[in-house]
Amino acid sequence: MTTRATRGPRRRTVVALAVILSVLAAFVVRLIDIQVVSADEHVAQSLTKIGAGDTIPGRRGSIVDAGGTVLASSVLVYDAQLNPKVIMQLEEKDPQVPWAEASEKIAAITGQTGDEVRALVSDALAENSQSQYAPLKNSLTTEQYIELRDLKLAYLHMAGRETRVYPNGAVAGNILGFLDGSGKAQAGIEQLSEKCLAPIDGEESYRRGSNGVVIPGSERTVEAVDGGSVELTINSDLQWYLQQMIGEEAQKQGAKGGTVTVVEVKTGKIRAAAEWPSMDPNDLDSSTPETRYSQIFHKDFEPGSTFKAITAAAVIEGAGLTPRSTVTASSRETFPNGAVVNDAFSHPAYNYTLAGGLIDSSNVALSKFGTMVSPDVRYDYLERFGVGQKTLDFPSEVGGILHPVSDWDSQSLYTTTFGQYFTVTAPQLAGAYQAIANGGEKIDLSLVESCTAEDGTVVKSEAPKHEQIIKKQTAAELTRMLENVAVQGGNADRIQVPGYRVTSKTGTAQVSDGNGGYKAGVYYTSMVGFAPVDDPQYVVVVTLDEPTKVVSSAATASAFQKAMTQVMKTYRVMPSTVPMDELLPKFG
Predict the structure, then answer these.
(1) How many domains are there within the chain?
(2) Which of 7, 61, 135, 553 is deepest in the core (most CB within 10 A)?
(3) pLDDT value, residue 215
(4) What is d(CA 194, CA 173) in angstroms, rounded to the nearest whole number?
(5) Which residue range forms the structural domain that includes residue 317?
């Protein structure tokens, strides 16, 4: 029998149990909501509050020349900052490392005094009591970065910053290019080989409690991967000499600029690409926007008489002519369609051979020879020799202009036979003569040899394309005629390289006025050739932009002779051993 006395405690027990079960149920429901229903949201919030980490920057790869000389390399530095607000918050919570002690440890690493470090924070707080930024020190070394990082202070932050260094200054500077303030490649090899040079940044992450202390076991590190090393085909010693030389020659001739391009005949490799004005990537402020890019690849010009050799190739193969084929040409003639063509010097009607037309660089003679084949044939040969096509897809490179035959008018029908009404770059001109020197086989030019990854894996550049664009016999006849130009032409005495048989052809191109005409008395001069004739090894192209002392192609003679002589010395090319063939006649 249940009495009133026993019913009271039992009822209280049941009520208490019910309350406990209700509270427990509420906790369970809340726990399910936190850990299951809203798990992702809460994890994200927790990481935002307690997650921390630092980027570990990788180092950009180096650029070296063909012999391994470093032309560009990178040094990582770090800029450190403090968070005054977090420092004060931790001080109020009895931090593991008091600020007075931490500031002394920081100072010992950065080369400052503890008082100086503490002053940086107090000054920031005096200006703004909620300040979260106080610069500590910039340009810290990797060793300093590691020591500071190992202190594991929540209020210390360090941002990696790469400093690019070019040990040889302006040597190949226009080819190497440069980086902007954010480390992004802006030009040259830096931009062309970005995929190889660019590093992959790593990351160090960890979690910390509300007092800023790193939670043991939460550390996670993903190591950075440094960029690869790019090897160029450039010979930096030859590059240095040619840059000095073309700078002196260009200034001597009162020119706006000058270039020298050297190409290896049997490989198509560019061994030097020198220009003036040159750019030192270490000191961009000393250059102008125009001189920060390679004019060798960026500047196109009408090649003038240098492309008369390509007209000769077209008529030898397309019309069956030989070096001794003849036309009668005076120094000024009016053609049936009304076009007027002039030679650079006055002379009566000569019975020019094809070889003689090249030796005297007669526009009239080449006009007559050139029109013995159709415009479509000549257009085809201009394309074969690379006109209108980029050589390397180098940053800022232009492909030149090759107008379709349908645009050729009565005048350009003839001017295209002697290098006008189309434009080329110095590398395109070098590539055209490389084909002649190489028995008619054109090899795509190259500037990058390989990329060596951080792990030592070497990736060679894609093999250049080889194409037989003219017959070997045609190339041999062109070579013979071009040697006769070097021996019998007006610059013969000025371009001799003792011990070597050399070819040459000059170009004196008018400069566009931007309005469809040409500037009066202003020229872009060039000279191209290869040596030794009996075993061609190197092509040399020299250009001068608007020389004022000597305005004809003779302005380039001295620079060409010096450049070719130095190339033969640099590569220890054996002197010619086979004597020159009997001189070809200028007149029939």
Answers:
(1) 2
(2) 553
(3) 72
(4) 16
(5) 236-286+297-570
